[in-house]
UniProtKB/TrEMBL annotation:
Species this chain originates from: Staphylococcus pettenkoferi
Full protein name: GCN5-related N-acetyltransferase
CDD domains named among the record's database cross-references: NAT_SF (cd04301)
UniProt keyword Lipoprotein, yes or no: no
N-acetyltransferase domain segment(s): 1-140
Keywords: Acyltransferase, Transferase
Molecular function in Gene Ontology: glucosamine 6-phosphate N-acetyltransferase activity
Xref: InterPro entries: Acyl_CoA_acyltransferase, GNAT_dom, GNPNAT1-like
Length: 140
């Protein structure tokens, strides 16, 4: 079940997943993981049937579009369409909030996944936290 974060406990769940995936798995410094956009972003968390939080994403206004960021799924949940379901939920919530275009900086290893969801790559590959990324856009 995916839901828009509305409580501090849910936000804590979101941060916990991000720490596990970005800090522990990918080596992003903890001080770079949380930023000044946490308060203004719309956060999404996915919960398994047993109540365990397993997926997270956020989006925020960037120019006149929704910028999707911090998309992460715990390693044991990376099969079975969970990423696709998470992104579909993000798109639904963003559309309800009035957005018609989403942008994201995809890790290059996930570019094919985002392409399969209708995102299109733009520009050149760049480094963010020493990980190769590419900007991608989708009109919803």
């Amino acid at each position: 079940m995916f839901k828009k974060v509305t409580t501090k406990d849910e936000l804590s769940d979101a941060f916990s997943i991000r720490r596990e995936v970005f800090v522990h798995e990918q080596g992003v410094p903890i001080e770079n993981e949380l930023d000044s956009y946490e308060e203004v972003a719309t956060h999404i968390v996915g919960y398994a049937e047993n109540g365990e939080p397993f997926a997270v994403a956020r989006f925020r206004t960037y120019e006149d579009v929704a910028k999707v960021e911090r998309v992460a799924i715990k390693s044991s949940y990376r099969q079975g369409g969970n990423g696709r379901q998470l992104m579909q939920f993000v798109e639904e919530v963003a559309q309800k909030e009035g957005y018609s275009t989403l942008v994201l900086n995809a890790q290059c290893q996930a570019e094919h996944f985002y392409r399969s969801l209708g995102y299109e790559a733009e520009g050149e590959v760049f480094l963010e936290e020493n990980i190769e990324h590419i900007r991608m856009t989708k009109h919803i």
